[in-house]
Amino acid sequence: MFDVMKNYEEMTTSEKKVLSYIVENQDQIPHIKISDLAEETFVSKTVIINLAQKLGFSGFREMKYHISRTILEKMSKQENHTVMYREVLKQSIDKTFSLVTEDQLLETAAKIKAAKNVFIMARGTSKAAGHYLEHLLLTIGIQCIFIKDYNLSEVFTDFVAEDDIVIFISISGDTKKIIDTAKKIHLKKAEMVSITSFRTNELTSYTTNNLFCYTDKANTSKNDTISRTGFFLTIDLLIDKLANI
Predict the structure, then answer these.
(1) Within a 10 A sphere around the Cβ of 113, how many other Cβ atoms?
(2) CB of 160 within 8 A of CB of 188?
């Protein structure tokens, strides 16, 4: 907004009270009259004018104008961010549709259907997609085990056999725990499916079926708020195939 600490030590108690009111009620200031502000804060108009001048403005009107501009700029940035994010989500949907082919879905669905046991593994925020897949598989009558516990990711590989299938969900495809587990499963020659963002990643070098979705970013080490919309769409498409074969 503006430097509220400018000349703060030189302000009177009344001026500080008005300043506190302005900071706490910024949205109201563009529409308030100086007389109303004086009434709300129990001070004189002179106190408000003096405060404005100590903050670097010629008077109340200039300070009010500055606050109005600041609020409008803030609203504009928020609106632009919303528009941009809506576009990102739209791209996630449109581009994921183009990345996931009917043949890939059908082949993957057939392998899941034929497997003796189905395991799902996901880490971090991608676990939400793992829960979703688990729920839908159980809904259509396919028993599965979602490895939710971090420690169990080390243990469950001992029980995986050649006629099982493991589905890995990882936005980057480079998560160390996921890769370490995939290597162990690879040695057992069990079927493996990866659902990752469309990029070169280590996980796809071990999995037998790769389903890609679109994301505008893939590095989750510093930002794990990346949308998983593409994951959920891919899972929906896969479940549809499973339910109809």
Answers:
(1) 13
(2) yes
CA distance 178 to 182: 6
Give this prediction's pTM.
0.64
Confidence of residue 61 (pLDDT cuts 50, 70, 90): confident
Run of H or E residues at 167: strand 165-169
Taking the alpha carbons at both ends of the chain, their separation in whole angstroms is 61
Enter the tokens of residue 44: 């004189």
Question: Could you tell me whether strands 118-122 and 145-147 are parallel, antiparallel, or unpaired per DSSP bridges?
Answer: parallel
Residues facing residue 167 across a β-bridge: 120, 193
For 130-136, the CB contacts below 8 A with 24+ separation are 130/169, 132/232, 132/235, 133/167, 133/169, 133/235, 133/239, 136/235, 136/236, 136/239
Question: In the 8-state DSSP scheme, what is residue 188?
Answer: T
